[in-house]
Amino acid sequence: MKPVPVTLAAAAFAVTSSVAADGLSHLPLLSDIVPDAVAISPRVPHMGTHWAEPANLPLGPIYCEIEGRIVCVEYMFLASDLASGVNWKQIPTGMQTPPLTHIDMEYKPDGVGPFQEPLYQIHFYFADTEVLAVH
C-alpha cells in the first residue's frame, strides 16, 4: 500500500472545507431577516442555534443558524391541535426562502423547552446534509 502524500490529503481537506463554506454562503443572514430574534436554544448538531421572535412561539417561524446564516426554518405544531383538527393556513415563512434541500418532521412526545406537551416539529432545510454534517 502506498502512503498518501500529505499534499493530496491537504487538498482533499481543503475541498471538503470549501464545499462546507460554499454550502452556506448563498443563505440569508439571520441579522438581515430577524434582527430582533433571540436565541432559544444552544447549538444543536446539524442545525446550529435556534432563534425566534418570542411572540411567534410555539408555532414559529424558528430560524436555525450556523455561522450567521439561516440553514432551516422550523415550525412546531401541538399534537393536541392536530388531533382536534386545527387548520394552519398561510403560515408566514418570515423570509423569501431559498430552495429546499429536504424536510424533516419529528414527533416529540415530551415536547421541547418550555412547551412540555406532545408536539411535532417540521424543519425546512436550505443547506445540504453534507454541509450540515460538519456543523
Question: Secondary-structure map with pairings?
Answer:
Blueprint: H1 6-25, H2 30-33, E1 38-39, E2 49-52, E3 62-66, E4 69-78, H3 79-83, E5 102-108, E6 119-125, H4 129-133
Antiparallel strand pairs: 1-2, 2-3, 3-4, 4-6, 5-6
Give an account of the 3D structure.
There is one protein chain. Helices cover 25% and strands 26% of the residues. The protein has helices at residues 6-25, 30-33, 79-83, 129-133; strands at residues 38-39, 49-52, 62-66, 69-78, 102-108, 119-125. The chain has a 6-stranded antiparallel β-sheet. The two termini are 33 Å apart.
Describe the sheet with the most strands. Answer: 6 strands, antiparallel
Helix percent reads 25-40%
**Estimated structural class:** alpha+beta
Number of helices: 4
Alpha-carbon Rg, integer? 18 Å
Q: Class in CATH?
A: Alpha Beta
Q: Spatial order of the strands in the main sheet?
A: 1-2-3-4-6-5
Number of spatially distinct domains: 1
The first-to-last residue Cα distance is 33 Å
Which residue ranges are poorly predicted, with pLDDT under 50 across at least 5 consecutive positions? 1-21
Strand content: 25-35%
CATH topology: Phosphorylase Kinase, domain 1
At a glance:
With 135 residues, the chain is of the alpha+beta class. It has helices at 6-25, 30-33, 79-83, 129-133; strands at residues 38-39, 49-52, 62-66, 69-78, 102-108, 119-125. Strands 1-2-3-4-6-5 form a six-stranded antiparallel sheet.
List keywords for this structure.
six-stranded antiparallel β-sheet, 6 strands, alpha+beta, globular, about 140 residues, Phosphorylase Kinase, domain 1, disordered N terminus, about 25% helix
